[in-house]
Design a protein that fits this description.
One of its GO terms (molecular function) is aminopeptidase activity. This protein is of the alpha+beta class and 591 residues long. It has 19 helices and 28 strands. It folds into three domains: 3-146, 3-Layer(aba) Sandwich (Creatine Amidinohydrolase, Chain A, domain 1), CATH 3.40.350; 159-295, Creatine Amidinohydrolase, Chain A, domain 1; 301-587, Creatine Amidinohydrolase (Alpha-Beta Complex), CATH 3.90.230. The strands form eight sheets. Strands 4-3-2-1-5-6 form a six-stranded mixed beta sheet, sandwiched between helices. It has a six-stranded mixed beta sheet with strand order 12-11-10-8-13-14. A four-stranded antiparallel beta sheet has the order 21-28-27-24.
Length: 591
C-alpha cells in the first residue's frame, strides 16, 4: 500500500466514524523520542522518517508540521504522498491545533490515539478546540485497522547494571525519588518515560534502536513499587534482585488497569512524559499533580562513578574517531567511499572497543549539500559517493556500558574555499566560546545558548537548532531536563550535568558545518559574588585546523584550540600504533 493509499484508507475510516480531523503525533505510550517499530506511525503513514513532527489530516488536506531541522528532508520525502509540509514557527509547538481551529466549524470532531499523545499535547489540542465547540476524542486508533502488518512489541532481553557501573543502587534511587514525593505530600507516582525507569532501576535493554531501554512502567504507591514489564525479558536472577530492592513485577499492559484502580489522594504525572490515555485512566477523585518526574532532575546530575566511566568511554570513542578519519583521508581518492559505507566503517571501528553496545543514534554522514540537513540519514536513493573535494560532516555517537558519546566534526576532502574557511571558523569560535563559558550558579540553558551564538550573530549568521542537549549515562543521547536553546526553560545548569555544545551553519544546496563536543559542568569557585561553574570538555577527538582562518580568531580562541588538540594527542597517543600516532600528531599541530 503506497502512502497515498494509506491516506485514503485513513480518510475512509474517519468518514465512517464521523471524524473531521485526525492527529498523529510522533510518539508512543512512553512519549519517547526514538520509537519501537510498532509506533513509527508517521513514517508508515506519510513516509517522513524524522524524529519530530505531527500529522493532521482532514478530508481535503493532510499536513506534516515539523521544525527547521527537517524542512528539506520532509519536502523530499512527502513528494507524491498526498501530505504537505507545514513549517513550524516554534519548535514543538502545537500549531496544527490552531490551524484546525481556524478551519473546522463548530460541531466538528477531532480525534487522536491517546496512547501516542502526551498529556501536554492533548491539553494543547483541547485548549485550542473545545472553546470553539469542536469535540475532541483522545481514544481513537485508526491505524490499527488499516496497518495489516503492523510490527508487534519488541521482545528483547533486559538486564540490570551493577552498582560498580552506576555508582548507586536501585534501592537508593527509589529512596531519593520518594523523598522528593514526600516534600510535595504525594503518595503515588507513575513513571512512563523509559530512560527514567531505566535509571531508577539500573535496568537496560534494547527495545528501541540506539537507546538501551526496555518497555515498561513503574508505579510507586506509598511503600509499594511495581514494575510493569514483559517478565520474560528478565532473567530469574534479575527478577530476584528487583524483588530484593522492593520492586514487584507485573505484566506490561496491566499498568493501565493498575492506574485505573489506584486508591490515593494525589498522584504525580509528568505531563510531557505521560500519555493522555494513562492520564485519563486515573479515577475521579484522585488529584493529579502535573510536574516533571523527580528522577529526570536526579538522573541529569552524574555521580563520580558515572563521570569516571564516561571519561573512559570518551577515550574509546576518540580512538575510533581517529582511526576513522585517517581511513577516510587515505581511501577517498580511490573513489569507492559513500555516505553509507563510511557510516558502516565508523560503527565497525567503535564496535572494536570493549563494552560497545550500539551506536547512540543513526550516524549523520553528510557530504556536500547533505551536510546542510542537520538530521540527515543517507538512504540507498540519496547515498552520495565521496570525492577528494568538498566538506564532509560526521555527527555520530556510541553506546558503551561505561557511557554515551555524541560528537560532530567537519573535515575537508580537498579544495577548501574562502567561504568554507570563514563559516567553519565562525562555528568553531562559537564552540570555543560556549566551552569556555564561566557563569554563576542558577544560570539557565538559554543563557549558554546566547553565549555560544554571540560570535555567530556578530557576523549576521545563525542556525535553526538548539546549541546543546543533556546526554545520559549509557542511556538516551538526548536527555532532559536542561537544554541549551533559545527557549526560556526554567532549569538551571548544575554541577555534574553532561551537555553537548554544537553550534552550526548551513548553506542549503552547498554544505553544512557543525562542531560538537560534550562538556561536564563543574564547580569553579565560590566567593562573595556567588558560586561559579565552568565546563570541562569530555570529548576526545582532534578539531581540524586546515579549515581555520586564524585571522577571524582572537588569541584566546587560538590558545584554546591548541591546548585542546594537544590534550587530544596526549590522551590518545598511547592507544595508537606508531603510524596512527604520527598521523594524529600532524592533525593536532598548533596553529
Amino acid at each position: 500500500m503506497a502512502h497515498a493509499e494509506r491516506l485514503q484508507a485513513l480518510r475512509e475510516q474517519m468518514s465512517a466514524r464521523g471524524i473531521d480531523a485526525y492527529i498523529i503525533p510522533s510518539s508512543d505510550p512512553h512519549i519517547s523520542e526514538y520509537l519501537p517499530e510498532r509506533y513509527k506511525c508517521i513514517a508508515w503513514t506519510s513516509g517522513f522518517t524524522g524524529s519530530a513532527g505531527t500529522l493532521a489530516i482532514t478530508q481535503d488536506f493532510a499536513g506534516l508540521w515539523t521544525d527547521s531541522r527537517y524542512f528539506v528532508q520532509a519536502a523530499d520525502q512527502l513528494a507524491g504522498t498526498g501530505f504537505e509540509l507545514v513549517k513550524l514557527s516554534v519548535q514543538a509547538a502545537a500549531e496544527y491545533a490552531f490551524w484546525l481551529a481556524d478551519r473546522l466549524p463548530a460541531g466538528s470532531t477531532v480525534a487522536f490515539d491517546g496512547n501516542l499523545a502526551s498529556l501536554a499535547v492533548a491539553q494543547a489540542v483541547e485548549g485550542a478546540l473545545l472553546p470553539l465547540d469542536i469535540q475532541v476524542n483522545g481514544h481513537v486508533d485508526l491505524l490499527d485497522v488499516i496497518w495489516k502488518d503492523r510490527p508487534s512489541l519488541p521482545r528483547s532481553k533486559a538486564y540490570l547494571l551493577d552498582e560498580s557501573t552506576t555508582g548507586e543502587t536501585a534501592n537508593s534511587k527509589l529512596v531519593r525519588v520518594r523523598e522528593q514525593l514526600r516534600l510535595k505530600r504525594i503518595s503515588a507516582h507513575l513513571i512512563s518515560s523509559l530512560d527514567d525507569l531505566a535509571w531508577i532501576l539500573n535496568l537496560r535493554g534494547s527495545d528501541v534502536k540506539c537507546n538501551p531501554v526496555v518497555l515498561g512502567f513503574l508505579l510507586l504507591e506509598d511503600e509499594k513499587n511495581t514494575l510493569f514489564i514483559d517478565e520474560t525479558k528478565l532473567s530469574v536472577n534479575d527478577q530476584r534482585s528487583l524483588q530484593q530492592a522492593g520492586v514487584s513485577i507485573q505484566p506490561y499492559w496491566e499498568a493501565f488497569q493498575a492506574v485505573a484502580a489506584i486508591q490515593t489522594e494525589r498522584i504525580l504525572l509528568d505531563p510531557k512524559r505521560t500519555c493522555f490515555a494513562m492520564y485519563d485512566a486515573v479515577p475521579e477523585g484522585v488529584e493529579i499533580i502535573e510536574d516533571i518526574n523527580p528522577s529526570t532532575r536526579l538522573k541529569a546530575i552524574k555521580n563520580d562513578v558515572e563521570i569516571a566511566h564516561t571519561r573512559t568511554a570518551m577515550v574509546k570513542d576518540g580512538i575510533a574517531m581517529t582511526r576513522f578519519f585517517k581511513w577516510v583521508e587515505e581511501q577517498v581518492s580511490h573513489g569507492k567511499l559513500t555516505e553509507i559505507s563510511i557510516a558502516d566503517q565508523l560503527q565497525t571501528l567503535r564496535a572494536a572497543n570493549e563494552g560497545f553496545v550500539d551506536i547512540s543514534f543513526d550516524t549523520i554522514a553528510g557530504y556536500l549539500e547533505h551536510g546542510a540537513l542537520p538530521h540527515y540519514k543517507a538512504s540507498e536513493d540519496s547515498n552520495a559517493p565521496l570525492q577528494p573535494n568538498g566538506l564532509l560532516l560526521i555527527d555520530s555517537g556510541g553506546q558503551y556500558k561505561d557511557g554515551t558519546t555524541d560528537i560532530t566534526r567537519v573535515i575537508s576532502l580537498g579544495g577548501i574555499t574562502d567561504a568554507e574557511r570563514s563559516d567553519y571558523t565562525i562555528v568553531l569560535k562559537g564552540t570555543i566560546e560556549g566551552s569556555m563559558a564561566i557563569f554563576p550558579k542558577g544560570t539557565r540553558g538559554y543563557q549558554i545558548d546566547a553565549i555560544t551564538r554571540r560570535p555567530i550573530w556578530e557576523t549576521l549568521r545563525n542556525y535553526g537548532h538548539g546549541t546543546g542537549h543533556g546526554v545520559g549515562f549509557f542511556l538516551n543521547v538526548h536527555e532532559g531536563p536542561h537544554t541549551f536553546n533559545p527557549s526560556n526553560i526554567d532549569i538551571p545548569v548544575e554541577e555534574g550535568m553532561i551537555t553537548s555544545i554544537e553550534p552550526g551553519l548551513y548553506r542549503e544546496g552547498e554544505y553544512g558545518i557543525r562542531i560538537e563536543n560534550l562538556v561536564l559542568s563543574k564547580a569553579l569557585e565560590s566567593n562573595p559574588f556567588g558560586d561559579f561553574i565552568h565546563f570541562e570538555t569530555l570529548t576526545i577527538c582532534y578539531i581540524a585546523t586546515d579549515l581555520v582562518d586564524k585571522t577571524l580568531l582572537d588569541q584566546k580562541h587560538v590558545d584554546w584550540l591548541n591546548r585542546y588538540n594537544a590534550w587530544v594527542y596526549e590522551q590518545l597517543a598511547g592507544h595508537l600504533t606508531d603510524v596512527e600516532q604520527a598521523w594524529l600528531q600532524k592533525k593536532t599541530k598548533a596553529i
